[in-house]
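[job 0417] fold request received: Probable E3 ubiquitin ligase complex SCF subunit sconB
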Amino acid sequence: MSKRSYIDDPLIPHPPKRPRTIPRDHVDQISSLSDELLIHILSFLPIPSLLACQQLSRRFHALAGDAELWKRQYYSRWVRPRARRLANARRTLFSHPEIEYSPRVSTWLDHGHLAKEGMSTNWKRQYRLRHNWSRGVCRVTEIEFPQSPRRQMLVSFCAGIVFTADSDHGLRAWPAEKPEHCLARIPLANSPSPAFPAPTAMAAASGPQQGLVDVTLGFEDGRFNIYTLDTTTLRLGVRFSCVECADGAISTMASCFPFLLLVSEHKVLSLYETKQDMDGAGGLLAPRLLTSLKADSILEPISLSIRATGPKIITSIVYSFYHIGCGWSLGIQELQFGLDGQQISSRLATTADCHYSTVSPGFRSRSKMGFRSASYGTGPGSRQNTTQSGPSISHHEPPTSVSYSHPYLLTSHADNTLTVYLVVSTSTSLSVKGCQRLWGHTSSVSAVQVSDRGKAVSVSSRGDDIRIWELESLVSSLGGQKALRDGNSIRISPENRLGRRHDGLGMVPEASLGEANAARSIDIPHRLARMRGCLGFDDERVLLLREKTAWTQMLECYDFT
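[job 0417] inference complete; emitting structure tokens
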């Protein structure tokens, strides 16, 4: 066996030195510049060059990552183009000062949530977040939950926290950022008993104070409990307990403090006020029933929503019904209440007229298949005999899901399409402006969610096709050719599922592996798992629920940070 040669062996040629690209007499003109001047120079560079500059030295890492620098980049990339796009859709003109950059985030369109006092924004992270949403780039993790044999586990998402409820494990809270760790839990009954009713519906919303989240559980015997989670102390406790409040099992719920809207299995709608007042005995006052409505003949899916607008609370019920002329349509009933709980008005609108290409001014179809008051009824409206063309949109099957977040109303269908409507609610009327069909899915769409900012998420029935939609500019130009071009969607493509390489802006590190039921990369055959629906989404993530086996459910978290 031959010995290794010495390093200084003259017979072995030395590796060639890297050629010097900078002359010896070169003078460094950049390092002598001030930080203010360098930041001004960096402001003219594109994003890839900024990221490259951060790798040069510690000084350039700090300068190229300056918050004001990325704040301007964020404004130029996301805020100004959106303002111009909306102006073109609405056929209005913006003056030069209105689109000029302003360091006051409160003046930016729909960015008030980033201008809260005492909150500092990481603008580079915010830019990367919006960039990932626009490309559909994310990381996906999952958690397996054992399912109770009595009832399916209920899941809700609010304020970055995932809430799960079932008869065996009670109500539990999980952080969406690291969903493998349980934050808090509370049993549904003081003593476990098979006779205790199982939960059938759940709704979560922000509580009366900052840092509080109210979780409402409806049960199969008609009762409901309201729990409060303190996100600071991570304490979960019961705030209200109301027995026999609904006629039968509660099927759907919506809440917005201090109001609670619920629908029973017999299609009885009830609206409660749940203020936290103390009675003379030192206990909590029972929730006050404001109104109760009975449905004539409606079919699921049903969507409930509650929103506060100044001195009024507006509750909305969206339901599906069959229209002889245009097939399956939607009805919207809106109830307005004052802050004292007194009912102000009740209005009804349908989407039937929107399905026709031309509508006579005298024709306004009013479906009476809605909710009617138990104390009085509304007489039939007058109709005029007019000639109509055939419907431009006709649905022969009921929608698979409905989501309403004012003013956006979105439905999904088994024919691989979605339909978006714009709901117009004024002080005197309620109407649906128009509708637009959306294409992009290659299989039946089973679930859809839309936010009040116009962002929507849709999921195919198999769960292998998840798409993001931006509806803001689309609904502003309903009926025009531009609407068809703006209806394009973005397919979510998790990096750790497809093995893709990121595009330079970076992603979060790999999710740490934990104990059993911990988050892990998706590697199961998804065709064997049935999609149950979209739980919701916020500015950073999308949550889906999938049924893997008869006794196991999977929570999938798609993180865009």
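[job 0417] notes: The mean pLDDT is 79. The chain is about 15% helix and 35% strand.
[job 0417] exit 0
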